[in-house]
């Protein structure tokens, strides 16, 4: 069973949130109670960019800062002990949430830093830094190949472009079909010179869920490492990184109900042990002399400097919150919203979905283009009605170019989104048509 099939089966067997449960859950998010644009109710449909935080996350950060704040792994006093315990408990909880061990999870500032950390391991090993183990696992030779996909966020594309430019490796990519899914006819780009396959678990533009298990199997067959961008999936699907058989995975706290300024990198234990460090300085060392330095074991080897402890505590609270709701039930809830979004948009003249129009095997992340109307103008009209959506290229220019547009507007639902909010968004799209005189724009 592929990862796409696993996600669909899990969501299909779970009971979606009912109206009473959803109302109680929404009350946990203080920001959702505010109004915008002349006292209009806020309809927040920009979860794919940044999710809102439940009160439990806000409280956890505040409690840490007011009661336990201290540097971790550095002091013998009680506050330092409490801070270190909270920091490492957060690591264990977040690691467990994505199906890995605590010593396989590295704290980073965000997913972009996590992906750069991995890319720089290959660069440093290629430059001869890190010793024999690093060279054996990560050093690249001219003509080696890095495979990405045409659907990648820039954070999982630009670091690999830079790595190729600095090492002589060649960048190749898996294509995207007209409906925004990875094109299986291009999977044969993974070949005997492939050293890394980097792909998104779910596109932040098309919402399509990638067949990770299938791609990972192709990479395994040629001895390549698999690097997964799990930013969009981590807060929306049950996630087991070991079961997906990837070597590295990155995700960000602020997309999964947690704070900004904290992300994580999963790395297979033996690979982390072989990796040379990315950033150096305090906290990641073992022994330092004036002539040389030896480095700590993972994950501390990759956590140089003072860490964002309050944010890790907040992310711990976020994964606890998601676990209490149940990721299978959350996926079922969002599958229902996806169906309603797609059906509603299909009834609006002149609006094209960039991505699959089938609600199966995709997230409630729906980018769209309105004929003859710039996405920023679409966003402004929707904003005037209290509807918060994303506009632009969403840090994914290549997939927009592949689908024939320079930019798009995007509605993305989350744990607290209601069907009534989806309906309000669809009404807003009809108003966009009426405002700009798009054919057939009258509604109701």
UniProtKB/TrEMBL annotation:
Residues 43-425 form the Aminotransferase class V domain. PROSITE patterns: AA_TRANSFER_CLASS_5. Pfam families: Aminotran_5. Its EC number is 2.8.1.7. Keywords: Pyridoxal phosphate, Transferase. It is an enzyme of class 2 (transferase). It catalyses: (sulfur carrier)-H + L-cysteine = (sulfur carrier)-SH + L-alanine. Its cofactor is pyridoxal 5'-phosphate. It comes from the Bacteria. The keyword Transferase applies. Belongs to the class-V pyridoxal-phosphate-dependent aminotransferase family. Csd subfamily. Catalyzes the removal of elemental sulfur and selenium atoms from L-cysteine, L-cystine, L-selenocysteine, and L-selenocystine to produce L-alanine. NCBIfam families: sufS (TIGR01979). This is Cysteine desulfurase.
């Amino acid at each position: 069973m592929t990862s796409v099939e696993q996600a669909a089966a899990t969501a299909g067997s779970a009971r979606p949130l009912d109206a009473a449960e959803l109302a109680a859950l929404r009350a946990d998010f203080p920001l959702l109670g505010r109004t915008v644009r002349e006292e209009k109710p806020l309809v927040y449909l920009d979860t794919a960019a940044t999710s809102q935080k439940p009160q439990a996350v806000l409280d956890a950060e505040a409690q840490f800062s007011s009661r336990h704040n201290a540097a971790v792994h550095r002091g013998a006093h009680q506050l330092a002990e409490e801070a270190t315990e909270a920091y490492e408990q957060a690591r264990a909880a977040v690691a467990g949430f994505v199906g890995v061990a605590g010593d396989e999870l590295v704290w980073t500032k965000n997913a972009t830093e996590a992906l750069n950390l991995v890319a720089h391991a290959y660069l440093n090993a290629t430059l001869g830094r890190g010793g024999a183990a690093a060279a054996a696992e990560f050093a690249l030779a001219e003509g080696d190949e890095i495979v990405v996909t045409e659907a990648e966020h820039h954070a999982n594309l630009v670091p690999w472009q830079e790595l190729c430019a600095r090492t002589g490796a060649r960048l190749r990519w898996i294509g995207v079909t007209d409906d925004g899914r990875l094109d299986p006819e291009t999977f044969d780009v993974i070949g005997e010179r492939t050293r890394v396959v980097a792909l998104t678990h779910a596109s932040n533009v098309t919402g399509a869920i990638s067949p990770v298990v299938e791609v990972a199997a192709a990479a395994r067959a040629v001895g390549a490492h698999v690097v997964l961008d799990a930013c969009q999936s981590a807060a929306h699907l049950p996630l087991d990184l070991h079961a997906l058989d990837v070597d590295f995975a990155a995700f960000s706290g602020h997309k999964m109900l947690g704070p900004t300024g904290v992300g994580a990198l999963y790395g297979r234990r033996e690979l982390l042990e072989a990796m040379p460090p990315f950033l150096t300085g305090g906290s990641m060392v073992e022994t330092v002399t004036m002539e040389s330095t030896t480095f700590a074991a993972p994950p501390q080897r990759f956590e140089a400097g003072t860490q964002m402890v309050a944010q890790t505590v907040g992310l711990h609270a976020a994964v606890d919150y998601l676990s209490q709701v149940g990721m299978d039930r959350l996926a079922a809830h969002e599958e229902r919203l996806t169906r309603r979004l797609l059906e509603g948009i299909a009834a609006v003249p002149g609006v094209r979905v960039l991505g699959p129009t089938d609600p199966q095997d995709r997230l409630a992340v729906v980018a769209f283009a309105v004929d003859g109307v710039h996405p920023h103008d679409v966003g402004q009209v929707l904003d005037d009605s209290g509807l918060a959506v994303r506009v632009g290229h969403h840090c994914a220019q290549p997939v927009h170019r592949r689908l024939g547009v320079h930019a798009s507007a995007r509605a993305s639902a989350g744990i607290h989104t209601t069907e009534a909010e989806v309906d309000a968004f669809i009404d807003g799209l009809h108003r966009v048509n009426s405002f700009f005189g798009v054919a057939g724009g009258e509604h109701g």
